[in-house]
Predict the structure.
Amino acid sequence: MAFLVGGANSAVSGYDIENSLRFNPGDEDDLSRTPSSAGNSKTFTISFWAKLSNDYGTDTSTNNFVTGRDGSGNTCGVQQISGGFIQCWNYADSYQMQLVTTAAYRDPTAWYHIVFAVDTTQGTAANRAKLYVNGSQVTAFSTETYPDEDFDTKWNEAVPHYIGSKDGTRDYFDGYLADLYTIDGTQYAASNFGETNDNGVWIPKDAKDDLTFGSNGGVFLEFKQSGTGTDANGMGADTSGNDNHMAVNNLAAPSQTTDTPTNNFATINPLHNGLNNPTFSEGNTKIVFKDGGNGYSPLSTIAVNSGKWYFEAKFVQTSDPGHGAISVGIVDAGQFKVDAQADEFFDRYDYGYSYTTDGEKKTNNSGSSFGDEYNNGDIIGVAVDFDNRQIYFSLNGTFQDSGDPTSGATGTGSAHNFSSAYYYMAVYAYQDENSWEMNFGNPPHSISSGNADANGYGNFEYAVPSGYYALCTKNLAKYG
């Protein structure tokens, strides 16, 4: 397998995180809670895993992971600022505590583990606030201001606390969060929440029973529930034993995903920027193309050259494609270069299924008749057999040209026989305003039926062909 970088991309772990929560700034979604009384605002720990969903190298917005904020704007929390730097801070008219990393964290393909541990009762200033990323304590900061001894922060006070926004109205987080702990009264190290596996990768561990959560500020969010209430069935359910459940704001059932630090799913990579830059949302599973300009070929975060893989792409038509330059399929990773022509990368090194009056299969921009036309709201299933180098396409559950993805080397109904190489999963659009919603196993839209692969991974609208699997790290470790 290839293109698996950053933390927690190993499938080998003694502890599995089952769920994450996907935040989408356009929906203005977050979780919130106001403690009934103050906890320990001098000593606490915040630990969580995050998978980023934007190009933080060019995005100038501020993205908040967690904040505690009173009505006067006095705030304590952890956020990502322009450039991809992490900031941990407490602000009340001025910064009493501010740590800004010199390292930028902006890899949208990987999960990061972030721990912010505070104890202002410590005599040594540098011990009063500690930041860990993927198990290592960060010691290089562009801004490094520690709080005074015995300083009271805004965290764990009886003020609104938010997961995924600054104050419930702005600076919303863009990405996925998993295994989020807030500890009231103890300053823990990263090693209390994670460990290094045999491959040298930092991974999560089952920490719940070994921690002292404290009372009003102690929360553990596993995101195992899909409800929208402020209770044990809600997405903000607290499983620490304190029942400090958080209110669910503008989050819907598809926000709960199985893309986690212990099973990392493919998404679309926003770092592949072309001239006709589309808009990415829903954790990099939805791409909206602009009207006019050159074509554009968003690529998956994972490329493969073996095994059998299945994904779905929902076409959402917002203007008449007309000329039919809209496709879904695979592209040769070895040909990829980050240059102006990469906008139309799909149109030169592709094996795809395109929108036309009657449907068309395309190879390197050369088309021939294949299957039926697809339209607004249709779901294209893509079954790629790398072992036999065949690719099959279904339209709303029916494989085109009487295709049989299980037919093997003979490729009955296969749209293409492709050469041996690494390939990205990709979509393509040229000039027209429309969008694709990509489902590598965690759809951005509601699923009416629900189908997993034979290993139980993924949530697809249509049945996964026998022997094919969702593109995630647990399956890659076995079949990739």
